[in-house]
Design goal:
Order of helices and strands: HHHHHHHHHHH
Distance between the termini: 20 Å
Radius of gyration: 22 Å
Structural class: mainly alpha
Number of domains: 1
Number of helices: 11
Largest sheet: none
Number of strands: 0
Strand content: under 5%
Length: 285
């Protein structure tokens, strides 16, 4: 287990090297995050303009009774948000796959491929929104039990759909076929593929340490030199903003690399074949 985590950390550093060479890939997470903020803002505008919309009626026991319109509004929010995230993830993964195969990968190339996959992305966003909406209903139904059941089902769904986005991008199939294909790829490295996320998580934690240090120094300096303390807080905030884009970018590159290895058996350009084979070797049947 420790060897696999060590190898997966090495793969995370390989992803980071590619991201360093292709820094423009950071634009995809930035734009995705900005678009998601705009989606949230657009859904909040009606409630800001008409606060009375949030005055939900209550039953005899004092429990809030949600009006019917809340459910389609919530589902619409889920759908639009999932679409934004999946679209830009698809563009990022497209660029990574092109780069792995020795081709030039511009932002335009990634966006063009994502646009060409719009039917598949829309279909997958609809499926994801439906599942997310249903899990939210389960979670709300019976508080503690609902939260546990929703968390378990959500985790199982995340595992099942681990490879769905790269499958949509590369193989251009519908959501059902993509789920089946994702499961097929997972069976080749059941467990091992998931350990890879541990290495990526450790790598991201290491990258987070400078921001934590800046915050600590800012707190220490705040009383003696307020201007310096505020400056350190601003630097920490800017660093965290970049860090929040690096995480999704690394995850997309990492997932694309793992997908390519799982489908071809060959490590992508920039990744060590032996490390990849050790970390994600298929289980013996």
């Amino acid at each position: 287990m420790f060897q696999k985590i060590s190898n997966s950390f090495a793969l995370a550093t390989s992803s980071a090297r590619l991201l360093w060479q292709e820094k423009q890939l950071l634009i995809f997470p930035f734009v995705s995050g900005l678009a998601c903020l705009l989606v949230v803002a657009s859904f909040c505008i009606p409630f800001i303009a008409h606060p009375a919309l949030l005055d939900f009626p209550k039953d005899a026991q004092g429990d809030v009774q949600l009006p019917f319109w809340v459910y389609p509004a919530l589902f619409s929010f889920y759908f639009v948000t999932y679409f934004v995230v999946i679209f830009f993830n698809s563009a990022l993964i497209s660029c990574a796959v092109l780069r792995f195969n020795g081709q030039e990968a511009t932002l335009g190339d990634g966006l063009s491929i994502a646009v060409n996959r719009l039917p598949q992305i829309l279909a997958w966003a609809l499926v994801s929104a439906t599942v997310g909406f249903l899990l939210k209903l389960v979670e709300s139904a019976h508080e503690r039990i609902g939260e546990i059941v929703s968390a378990l089902l959500g985790t199982a769904w995340s595992v099942m759909t681990y490879f769905v986005v790269p499958v949509l991008v590369v193989e251009k199939v519908g959501p059902i076929d993509a789920i089946q294909r994702s499961l097929s790829l997972l069976k080749k490295s059941w467990g091992e593929a998931l350990v890879g996320q541990a290495g990526l998580g450790i790598f991201m934690f290491v990258l987070m340490l400078p921001a934590i240090l800046l915050v600590v120094l800012g707190v220490l300096a705040l009383q003696a030199a307020p201007a310096l303390g505020i400056a350190l807080f601003v630097l920490a905030a800017l660093y965290f903003l970049v860090w929040s884009a690096v995480g999704p970018a690394l995850n997309g590159i990492f997932l694309a690399a793992l997908y390519q290895y799982a489908t071809t058996g060959s490590a992508p350009n920039g990744f060590d074949q032996q490390v990849m084979a050790t970390a994600f070797a298929p289980k013996a049947s």
